[in-house]
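Progress note, sequence design subtask.
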């Protein structure tokens, strides 16, 4: 995008509109946003607390799950409070620096969560294909290196976006029809040539999220091959059951994003507010439902949650 009309004025303050076209419904829309955020906060906080305090759950799979829950907390906190401020108080004004900070944490957390899902697929691959070597392969040292790699990959790839955005002159419209800031959504208001931003954003998407999806797919192809070579049906069921939660979370995380991309590419007659609602679903659904999925599907976590909740209820009952 190249614009020759440089006015010399660069906007340093922007205004997020929320969901344009549905301003009259903002108060009603805020209800599912608020409920989803509360569930995400409580569910993921409880999950992290249980996984950190129970020694029996200090296994690689649960460590990665703890990382996923932490990423969900950050992702939802980066987006939902801002949206609620717009819905409730019409407080959509945001400075350029704060906007860039928000999109930085949104993108880094999204890539981190994608990396964690890839590592969890690798964990299931080792557990099913090499069960006797599971503990010797996934050592604490390797888990630590994997965690650092996920962190460095996400922050290292998104950090240059700060400079790519700071070099731009925002002399066009400063009204952003969205509930949060994102890279290209902000860059398109610049008067400069933003082809570098577009190509960098596309390259990062391909080298991180898309690559993760491909590797996860390969992992599960290998897992299925190993499962179908098992002699008994009970072994089939047990192996697939250990992957059930992870598959649900993968579909929940990547599914809305893929659907959003398809609607933006082919759904030109779809109203803008539908695109914005779908983008928010990508941020709301995984943090809210991930702890519920793992709490229901994973027996060890389910037992610990029941134990914690009922123990607190009993202690309160005896005090009264």
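Output:
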């Amino acid at each position: 995008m190249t614009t020759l009309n440089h006015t010399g004025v660069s906007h340093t303050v922007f205004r997020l509109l929320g969901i344009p076209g549905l301003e009259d419904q903002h108060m009603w829309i805020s209800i599912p946003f608020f409920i989803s955020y509360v569930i995400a906060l409580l569910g993921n906080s409880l999950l992290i607390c249980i996984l950190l305090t129970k020694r029996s759950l200090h296994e690689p799979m649960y460590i990665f799950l703890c990382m996923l829950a932490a990423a969900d907390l950050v992702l939802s906190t980066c987006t939902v409070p801002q949206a609620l401020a717009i819905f409730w108080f019409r407080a959509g004004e945001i400075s350029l620096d704060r906007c860039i900070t928000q999109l930085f944490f949104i993108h880094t957390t999204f890539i981190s969560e994608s990396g964690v899902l890839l590592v969890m697929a690798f964990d299931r691959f080792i557990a099913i294909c090499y069960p006797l070597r599971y503990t010797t392969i996934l050592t604490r040292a390797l888990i630590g290196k994997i965690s650092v790699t996920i962190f460095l990959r996400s922050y290292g790839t998104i950090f240059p976006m700060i400079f790519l955005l700071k070099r731009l002159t925002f002399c066009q419209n400063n009204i952003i029809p969205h509930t949060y800031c994102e890279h290209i959504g902000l860059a398109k208001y610049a008067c400069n040539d933003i082809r570098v931003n577009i190509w960098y954003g596309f390259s990062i998407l391909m080298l991180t999220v898309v690559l993760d999806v491909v590797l996860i797919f390969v992992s599960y192809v290998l897992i299925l091959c190993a499962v179908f070579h098992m002699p008994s049906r009970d072994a089939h069921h047990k192996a697939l059951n250990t992957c059930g939660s992870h598959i649900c979370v993968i579909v929940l995380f990547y599914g809305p994003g893929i659907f959003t991309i398809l609607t933006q590419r082919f759904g030109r007659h779809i109203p803008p507010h539908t695109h914005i609602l779908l983008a928010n679903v990508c941020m709301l659904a995984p943090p809210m439902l991930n702890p519920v999925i793992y709490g229901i599907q994973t027996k060890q976590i389910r037992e610990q949650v029941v134990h914690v909740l009922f123990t607190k209820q009993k202690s309160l009952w005896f005090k009264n």
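Residues 1-5 have pLDDT under 50 and may be disordered. Work on this subtask will continue into the next period as scheduled.
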